[in-house]
Every structure is written in C-alpha cells, then in structure tokens.
From TrEMBL:
<keyword id="KW-0999">Mitochondrion inner membrane</keyword>
<dbReference type="GO" id="GO:0005743">
    <property type="term" value="C:mitochondrial inner membrane"/>
</dbReference>
<feature type="transmembrane region" description="Helical">
    <location>
        <begin position="132"/>
        <end position="155"/>
    </location>
</feature>
<dbReference type="GO" id="GO:0030003">
    <property type="term" value="P:intracellular monoatomic cation homeostasis"/>
</dbReference>
<protein>
    <submittedName>
        <fullName>LETM1 domain-containing protein 1</fullName>
    </submittedName>
</protein>
<keyword id="KW-0472">Membrane</keyword>
<dbReference type="InterPro" id="IPR033122">
    <property type="entry name" value="LETM1-like_RBD"/>
</dbReference>
<keyword id="KW-0812">Transmembrane</keyword>
<keyword id="KW-1133">Transmembrane helix</keyword>
<dbReference type="InterPro" id="IPR044202">
    <property type="entry name" value="LETM1/MDM38-like"/>
</dbReference>
<dbReference type="GO" id="GO:0043022">
    <property type="term" value="F:ribosome binding"/>
</dbReference>
<dbReference type="Pfam" id="PF07766">
    <property type="entry name" value="LETM1_RBD"/>
</dbReference>
<feature type="domain" description="Letm1 RBD">
    <location>
        <begin position="178"/>
        <end position="357"/>
    </location>
</feature>
<keyword id="KW-0496">Mitochondrion</keyword>
Amino acid sequence: MALSCSRLCSHLSLTRLFGLRTNRITIGVYSPNVSYQSRLPLCRQYSSSKVRRGIGRYFQWANSKYEGFLKRRFPRFYLLYHTFMKGFKLLFQDAKEVRRIKAKMINGVKFQDLPYREMEKLRQFRRDMIKAVPLVVISIPPFANYLVFVLMYFFPRQLLIPHFWTPRQQIEFRRVYHSLRVRHHLPIIEGLKDTSGQVKNSQLQSRLKELCAKVQGGETPKLSEILVVRSLFSGPPLGMKRMSVDHMRHISSLLFLTPRLPGFLISRRLNSYALELLQLDRALSRLGPQQLSDYELRQACYVRGLNSDSLGVNQCLEWLFQWLQVSSSLKDSEVSLLLHSIVFLSANYPSGPGQHL
C-alpha cells in the first residue's frame, strides 16, 4: 500500500513537472509569435513612413521639373507662379507667428510690452487681412475663383497684399502709394495755417505759422521747432478730438484710412492709429534702430511717411533717429502732433541745413 502510494505521488510529481515544462515550452514557443505580432504595426508604420517620404520626393521632383518647364517656355507666367507660391508660404509663416504671439498675449503679455518685431508683425498682418477679406468674399460663389484670378492679375496693387507682389512691384507700388499721400501734404499744412488764427497765445500762434511756412518753403524744420508747439496738439484747436472734420479727413487719407466716415468715427480711428504708432516707436527705441535690417529700416521709415526707396541706408537711419526723438518726447495726449510730424519731417527730406537740430 505504501509502495503504491509512493508510485502515485511520484507519478503526480512527474506529471506536474511535465506540465510545468510543457507550459514553459509553450510560453517559450508562443512568446516569439507575440513579439512578432507586436512588431507588425511598427513595421507597417515604418513602411508607410518610407512610402510617404518616397511620395514626397517624387512630388518635389515633379514640381521642380514643372517649374523648370514654365521657366523655359513661359517665363512671365513662371514669375507670377513663383511669386504666388512664395507668397502663400510667407503668409502661412506669418499666420503661425501671429498665432504664437496671440498665445503669448493670452497668457498675460500686453501689446505695449511686446518686442518691436512682434508688435509690427501683428500690425501689418491685421492690415493685410483687412485688405484680403473682400477678395475672399468675392471668390465664394461657384466658379468665381476664375474671375478673382483675372482681377488679381490685372489689379495686383489694389487687390493683393505685399506677400504676392514681385520685388519690382513692391518698389513700384510703394512709389505709387507715396505719391497718393503726398497729395495731402499741402492741404494739411494749409489747414494748420488756417487753424493758427484760433490760437489765443500770440507766441504759439507765430511759432505755428513759422513752422508751416518753413515746410512750405521746402525745408525740414528742426525738432525743437516742432516740439515747441506741442501743447497746441493736446487740446484745442489741434487735439485729436478738437480738429475739424475736413482736416481729419486729409490726415486719414495720408494714413490710407477711410475718410468717408462720420467725424467721431474718424477721430476714434485716428486716435487708435496714433497710439499704436506711439507704442511701436517706444518698442523700436528699446530695440534700437541700428538693430534693424535694411528692409526693416526702410519699411519703418515708409510706415512713418518717408519714401525710403530713394534714400540710402544711412539717410534712413538718420531720419528714423529724428522721428524717434520727437516720438519719445510726446505723451499719449499729444499723439496728434505725431501724425502731423509725418508731414513736418518727411515732406522735404532730405534737405539742406534745416534737417539738423
């Protein structure tokens, strides 16, 4: 009996041992299959990524061949095509940059605390989008995109934003726009002369008349001659909310703002524009004009009323330093003088000795 029990126990032990070995063998045989199956998605992902890269290289090759064909056979159309493709890339980059800046502002950074380049990017992008909205609306109806393309081809200055201008068009269109705002220099100076009769302080009245006469005589006034009449531009008769409607309309046209609005709306828009320009100047003073690239320098001068394409870099830098000296001396309540300084400082620059202090 004891012998049979011992045999039974040994048999059970062998069975258990065999079972364990069987399980181990099964697990050992199964685990490679599991790991292989777990690797399948990785292999598929690796293969699909290789396919995508291959397709991307093929499209790049086909696009380069297509561009080469256009450049050889249709050079004018190629220039248009290349400008549009480059413009879309720049616009996409600007949109990403603006989104990043907006996220920073949502997290608590105020507009006036932004660096100069980010502040300028927001300002210019907003103006570009305002110009682009009508074209987008026109292209909504079916088949209207063909009409839009024709309009863009024949009226690029009126319909396209600078991203889609060729380098030659940028210079040409800036010259055209500058000639349009120059038309309002004389009416603004004449308006100041007429308004000088309302100044009760005889000394300030004579200083304002002398300032206007100097600009009309072809000279650029000294900075001290501009700043001495600053008090007239914070209240009556030349404060932002005290100017006549006709005078504000000329200033709006000078800044490419719509002049065909009620007087209180024009005043509000001019005040908003001037305060934004003042904050931009303060950010530029913190950065230093000498830190700007040649393109940024010319663009900064152009925004402030100067036709910078006809000037050298040193002349642009000298003029911008003068502008910032005036701007840094003004309070928020005196921004009307900042807008008039567009005429005072740019109408006759470069000129003779009158451009120096």
